[in-house]
Amino acid sequence: MAEENKVSLHGFFASPYVRRVELALKFKGIPYEYVEEDLKNKSSLLLKYNPVHKKVPVLVHNGKPIVESLIILEYIDETWKNGPRFLPEDPYKRAQIRFWASFVHQQKYIV
Ligand SMILES: N[C@@H](CCC(=O)N[C@@H](CS)C(=O)NCC(=O)O)C(=O)O
């Protein structure tokens, strides 16, 4: 991996927010280093990268942190444009996909 494209992901094994970012990285074929966080004893790096919410996921791209899973997904799609795009061009189809993605994500609260 070129030094100018170093990607790491701070996560937690049971986090659906982290899983959605991992899926996005794998979908695009982006190599990354995974850093498992202990959410009861957060690392100084996590606190430095996400001082507002202090949560995972945090994507670090060439030393620059990006936080909040949906913002991370947009960043990935806008940065790695060579691979398949996450959303189609058609605005109505985009809206439908966003609805179902949100629906599926909310299901964890039902079980
Ligand atoms: N809105 C955030 C939610 C992230 C989130 O809630 N992460 C949880 C793990 S599932 C976390 O880091 N919790 C640690 C804490 O609340 O101290 C996102 O979409 O990234």
TrEMBL record:
Keywords of this entry: Cytoplasm, Transferase
GO cellular component: cytosol
Catalytic activity: RX + glutathione = an S-substituted glutathione + a halide anion + H(+)
The keyword Cell membrane is assigned to this record: no
Localization per record: Cytoplasm, Cytosol
GO MF entry, a single one: glutathione transferase activity
Major location category of this protein: cytoplasm
GO biological process: glutathione metabolic process
Domain GST N-terminal: residue ranges: 5-84
UniProt KW Transferase keyword: yes
Documented EC number(s): 2.5.1.18
Family under the similarity heading: Belongs to the GST superfamily.
Function: Is involved in the conjugation of reduced glutathione to a wide number of exogenous and endogenous hydrophobic electrophiles.
Protein name: Glutathione S-transferase
Organism encoding this protein: Quercus lobata
